[in-house]
Amino acid sequence: MADMICAGFGGQGVLTMGLILAKIAMDEGKNVTWIPSYGSEMRGGTANCSVKITDGMVASPFIKHADIVIAMNQPSLDKFMPMLRPGGTLMVNTTIVKDAVRRDDIEVYGVDATEIAQQEQNARGANIVMLGALASAGKLLTHDVIEKGIEAFFASKGKHNPKNAACYERGFACCARLG
User: Fold this and answer.
1) Does the pLDDT of residue 88 top 70, yes or no?
2) What is the C-alpha separation between 92 and 22, in angstroms, rounded?
3) What is the CATH code of the structural domain delimited by 2-178?
4) What Pfam family is a match, any one (predicted)?
């Protein structure tokens, strides 16, 4: 189904974003892997995760060529865009990533994830905004499946933040194809 990389600074929720997607896909009966990677700095350092979602068996959890890359910052874009397959999808947090993407063989979508999260008074919700954008691009799972999966993920941890729903809906509505 998809080999995906979610990447950004520590504290942007990229590991949680990948974990949410893996959990949702697992609940949908898919086989998944989720491999986190982060620098020793935690907040402010680099963080990324690879997520594989498939109907079949996962031969290897490692990703050499990604179908989807979600870049929450410029260093992540620079590092992971070359791994994106031709025909792949790049999701960009345009609040932070200002450089134009220069590849004609991929689809590029942008959303002001960090700005939207701040507007919704949910500073840690930029990852949820990006999940809404991913649903809007129609590249993985449906709007309703992701929306319910986000709520279930946080509910399983005893948390409920109604601002997450607002961030998700804004990401869905504000996602735009670039170029």
Assistant:
1) yes
2) 20
3) 3.40.920.10
4) POR
